[in-house]
Write a structure and sequence with these properties.
This protein is 6% helix and 40% strand. It contains 8 helices and 56 strands. A 6-stranded mixed beta sheet has the order 2-3-12-6-7-9, with no helix packed on it. A 5-stranded mixed beta sheet has the order 1-13-5-8-10, with no helix packed on it. A hairpin with a 5-residue loop joins β55 and β56. The protein is flat.
């Protein structure tokens, strides 16, 4: 078919390529020699990578080269204009497509200069869209790069028989695109496929069975020779090839051949039908599906217990009925018309050679693989599977004798047995076996009237009990007998005593039970076994055996039991009394002080007994003394071991620290300030506290007193350990801010505070008015200035003073006289 000016077509080219990917891929349309031919009904789907060989350097006026390119070859059937619009599938303005056109009638390797090219960047050119192409409305033959142009250059007047190469390049973006041919020139017709209709490019699917070995891989041979002949229909210029991908078919690489094997169970084959004269082609496809016969059940492994049907129940040979497996394979499959046969190897199953009989007696040791051939007689499909046959031996069931003690005080030969204690002896130690117990062999075989073997009271002596031993995995069964017999021998009782020394005085202690072995076995025959139990019932039934160490569960006093056996036969059961003695209740750590300034006076220390009389205990001091108290006259560490009448003891440590009365080494006074303070520095081994002016007053731990008013003080330093009190006088110098000489006996005089006959008595005190006139030179030991000058009271005002203390310090400031 040919195009007309009013009919156009479009094709979409899908490109999967990284920007600036320059790795060439063999036979990709990114090179001129593998250009895709455009025909009358062309439609493409390509997987293109990179730029192949760089072929645009210096061949165009648009100053660009290949980035991610695809080459098209356009052949003109009827003359007219060659024009198109390229539309990226993404409308993002950053998607930038360029193109270059070479021709007419040039060849790869000698393409010459581009006759049209556009490398305009739509974003840089402020275009409203990212379209590009050839347009009859444009007059320029090239545009770009960057912001130059609008994405379109002038259409080409093409003659019949002309051919052109169009290079589509994508410097920015990765979306697919479509091309709409808008010119009047037409292209040659593409070939047709007589096997398809006009509305579909797909052939009917081909569904076949996997009837070749191996039957379950869904792979078989396909012969498309007849299909090729039907498509070409005798035409000599039609070439048909088959491909595994649409891209391969478009590019015409890696053809399969007319005879090939599928690679997956369901696969699409792409058919390229090419006119070898024009190079035009079409793509068709056909779905092929290979299915294995899987509509059957996978049989489970077939296990049978060894039996004596062949006269020997221990030789591992039995007869298997394969009809059981046949029913399992087709169970639940409606309408199954299968021929099922069984074989000893896969090869025989595939070739149907030497099938096994339905009732098959194995002749070799199992497990053995059995291979199954399953043929669907309706479809011809063949499937295969396999399973194991296995002959399971009977479980071990030994005959055992069990001897129990008669410890109820009545020697009549009846007692309680825990028959389950001999499980390992019956089964030979097989942990995969379970045992049930019966009074008769018939009951054991029929699984009727099972008895409680964990606490069975015999009623004959001796008595036979019958076991049914079942393998828990295979369910195979065997039987044995147990002979029960009662012994009337006995063993010795004993006791174990310990002090409660584990650090938690609660009446619970760990005992080494083997310490009782000698007492229990004294006088008995040699070679006996001894185990311990918490209760008499446990000892009788041999359940919950204790280890060699045991912590009592009843505080302070408890009875446990020892079972003496001779080769697993009970010889006797003994009582063991466990006793935990209390420790002395004392204060184990004590700290006190000895006043070294009181030496040689002594002080008393004692054993620290709590809630009891001291004379109920024994004492051993580190000094060698053995009385409940001792006298000491020196600091040090003293220890005493306090022992009760049961021989249990505790140690007490008494730490005697030295202490004494304080020695004052210095008194630091900060005075004549708004925040006066006194700090007392002392030496000594005591722990000291401090008070001001009141020996019985409030004491503080700090040796500093802050915010002290000016004046004279006595400081007291007391040892907290009652070793005595030291005192000292302190002077704090200060200057009153005002005084009121009104004879009310309150602040009638102004005087420097803190001066006395002992402190700063030789100081100089001068008083001035505000103009510097000397008004008074005070005696520092006098009551002070009464506010008068020449017999008259001075007016209310501020007055100045200058004080030079005996220690050399000088102070100048002012105060207020208020009337």
């Amino acid at each position: 078919m040919t195009n007309t000016p009013t009919i156009f077509f479009k094709f979409i080219i899908f490109i999967s390529c990284l920007i600036f990917c320059f790795t060439a891929v063999a036979q990709q349309p990114s090179d001129c020699q593998y250009a895709v031919t455009v025909c009358g009904s062309s439609s493409f789907s390509l997987d293109v990578n990179g730029v192949g060989t760089q072929e645009l350097n210096g061949s165009n006026t648009c100053a660009s080269q290949e980035n991610n390119s695809i080459w098209l070859e356009v052949n003109i059937a009827e003359a007219g204009t060659l024009a198109f619009t390229l539309t990226p599938s993404s409308s993002n303005i950053s998607e930038d497509y360029d193109f270059f056109i070479f021709g007419p009638n040039v060849s790869c390797g000698n393409i010459g200069q581009a006759i049209r090219c556009s490398t305009t960047n739509p974003a840089a050119a402020n275009q409203g869209n990212n379209l590009t192409g050839l347009s009859s409305a444009s007059t320029e033959t090239s545009e770009g790069p960057g912001a130059a142009g609008d994405g379109f250059v002038s259409a080409i007047d093409a003659n019949a028989g002309d051919s052109y190469f169009i290079v589509i390049d994508r410097p920015v973006g990765n979306s697919p695109f479509s091309i709409e041919w808008t010119g009047t020139a037409t292209f040659p017709d593409a070939p047709s496929n007589p096997l398809t209709n006009t509305t579909s490019t797909s052939l009917p699917s081909i569904d076949v069975c996997d009837d070749l070995t191996p039957f379950n891989d869904n792979i078989r041979e396909f012969d498309f020779t007849q299909m090729t002949q039907d498509i070409t229909n005798g035409e000599s210029d039609i070439n048909v090839t088959y491909h595994t991908s649409e891209s391969d078919a478009n590019i015409n690489i890696d053809p399969l051949g007319d005879v090939f094997n599928n690679t997956t169970s369901t696969e699409t084959i792409y058919i390229r039908i090419e006119n070898t004269t024009t190079g035009c082609y079409i793509l068709n496809d056909v779905d092929i599906s290979v299915s294995a016969l899987t509509n059957f059940n996978t049989p489970s492994d077939y296990e049978l217990c060894d039996d004596d049907s062949d006269g020997d129940d221990q030789n591992g040979m039995v007869t298997f009925n394969f009809d059981i497996k046949t029913q399992e394979i087709i169970n639940g499959i409606t309408g199954a018309n299968y021929d099922i046969s069984y074989y000893l190897n896969q090869s025989d199953a595939e070739t149907a050679t030497s099938p096994l009989p339905t009732n098959y007696a194995n002749t070799a040791a199992t497990p053995t693989d059995i291979f199954v051939r399953i043929e669907d007689l309706d479809t011809g499909c063949i499937g295969s599977t396999s399973f194991n046959i296995n002959v399971v031996p009977k479980p071990i069931a030994n005959n055992i004798s069990l001897l129990q003690c008669d410890e109820d005080g009545i020697s009549e030969g009846f007692t309680t047995f825990n028959i389950t204690e001999i499980t390992n002896e019956v089964t030979g130690g097989n942990t995969d076996s379970t045992i049930s117990y019966y009074l008769s062999q018939v009951d054991a075989e029929n699984e009727e009237n099972e008895i409680d073997a964990s606490a069975f009271n015999n009623f004959f002596n001796p008595q036979i009990i019958y076991t049914r031993v079942t393998n828990s995995t295979t369910n195979c069964v065997n039987f044995s007998e147990i002979s029960l017999e009662v012994s009337t021998t006995s063993s010795n009782n004993t006791s174990l005593e310990v002090c409660d020394t584990d650090g938690t005085e609660d009446g619970f202690m760990e005992f080494n039970l083997t310490d009782a072995d000698t007492s229990i076995l004294a006088g008995l025959t040699t070679g006996l076994d001894l185990n311990y139990y918490e209760t008499y019932e446990d000892a009788l039934l041999e359940t919950n055996t204790l280890g060699t160490t045991y912590t009592n569960t009843i505080a302070y006093n408890q009875i446990i039991y020892g079972r003496v056996e001779n080769a697993n036969a009970c010889y006797g059961i003994s009582e063991i009394e466990l006793t935990v003695f209390e420790l002395p209740q004392i204060e184990t750590e004590f700290e006190t002080q000895y006043c070294t300034n009181l030496f040689p006076e002594t002080m008393t220390i004692d054993g620290g007994i709590i809630n009891d009389l001291p004379n109920n205990y024994y004492y051993l001091w580190s000094t060698g003394e053995d009385t409940s108290t001792i006298q000491i006259d020196a600091p040090g560490t003293y220890t005493v071991r306090v022992t009760n009448t049961n021989g249990c003891f505790k140690d007490r440590t008494i730490t005697v620290l030295p202490s004494n009365i304080a020695t004052i080494t210095d008194i630091e006074v900060v005075d004549a300030t708004q925040n006066n303070s006194i700090s007392i520095l002392v030496s000594g081994e005591g722990d000291y506290e401090y008070a001001l002016d009141d020996e019985n007053g409030i004491y503080q731990d700090s040796n500093t007193f802050n915010n002290i008013e000016p004046g004279l003080y006595t400081v007291y330093i007391r040892d907290k350990n009652n070793c005595g009190t030291t005192d000292a006088l302190v002077s704090v110098i200060g200057f009153p801010k005002f005084f009121t000489p009104n004879d009310d006996d309150v602040n009638d005089y102004w005087q420097v505070k803190g001066i006395s006959a002992l402190f700063q008595s030789n100081s100089s005190v001068l008083i001035f008015d505000r103009y510097g006139k000397l008004l008074k030179e005070l005696d520092p030991l006098s009551p002070g200035w009464d506010g008068s000058f020449n017999g008259k009271i001075m007016p209310t005002s501020d007055y100045w003073f200058k004080v030079k203390l005996q220690d050399g310090r000088t102070f100048t400031n002012h105060f207020t006289l208020k009337l």
